[in-house]
Automatic annotation (TrEMBL):
Residues 12-166 form the CinA C-terminal domain. Gene3D superfamilies: CinA-like (3.90.950.20). It comes from the Bacteria. InterPro entries: CinA-like_C (IPR036653), CinA_C (IPR008136). This is CinA family protein.
Length: 172
């Protein structure tokens, strides 16, 4: 494997994701918030990833979630930026703004600040949307990785998001 500035575990999983999606004949997109492009960076670390990786949206602010991915301000205000509703809307937005077959969204609180009693640092929400899937087939879940430091939370979130991009991966 070529040298990478990214952790080997991330690059190895990205390599599996690219190969599996190539075999499945599907393209992917990601909508990232707390990971700040880490999933996209891992995917593009793989030679030939352009065959399957179509788009990456880093929408760190709520305004950009609304403007670029068309996440409703009502959803963000009602449920919060770190919510299943927001992650699901981000995944749907990534599908709508691309030609990808599947999209994964990540939004969370990497820390060290920003957490609350209800959503402490280390809380990350994931959603996967597939083109043509039944609208009631929502694949989304909230995970708590613990306050393992900003880098630790972001790495665990990126690994989880990549797992969701594997064909036939279970719900989070």
């Amino acid at each position: 494997m070529p040298d990478s500035i990214l952790p080997a575990s991330l690059v190895e999983l990205a390599e599996r994701v690219v190969a599996a999606n190539r075999r499945a004949g599907r393209t992917i997109a990601v909508a990232e918030s707390c990971t700040g492009g880490l999933v996209s960076a891992a995917l593009t670390e793989i030679a030939g990833s352009s065959e399957v990786f179509e788009a990456g949206f880093v929408t760190y602010s709520n305004d950009m979630k609304s403007e670029l991915l068309k996440v409703s301000q009502d959803v963000i205000e009602t449920f919060g930026a770190v919510s299943i509703a927001t992650a699901w809307a981000m995944a749907q937005g990534a599908l709508n703004k691309s030609h990808a077959n599947v999209a994964v969204a990540i939004t969370g609180i990497a820390g060290p600040g920003g957490g609350s009693e209800q959503k402490p640092v280390g809380t990350v929400v994931f959603a996967r949307a597939e083109r043509g899937a039944s609208p009631d087939k929502i694949v989304a879940d909230m995970h708590y990785f613990g306050d393992t430091g900003r880098g630790g939370v972001r790495l665990q979130a990126a690994l989880c998001a990549l797992e969701l991009l594997l064909p036939d991966s279970p719900a989070p």
